[in-house]
Write a structure and sequence with these properties.
4 helices, rod-shaped, transmembrane, CydS, membrane, transmembrane helix
Length: 41
């Protein structure tokens, strides 16, 4: 178990964070909308 935590866990976390960034990023209005659309709020 100790070897798993040292060698494999950081890569699993890194891959998870990269996937989460691609999933969450479309919900960011500042990135997906242009300047005119952002001013309408």
């Amino acid at each position: 178990m100790n070897e798993f935590l040292i060698f494999y866990a950081p890569f699993i976390v890194l891959i998870g964070v990269i996937i989460a960034a691609f999933v969450i990023s479309p919900f960011d209005d500042a990135v997906t909308k242009g300047p005119k659309e952002r001013k309408k709020k």
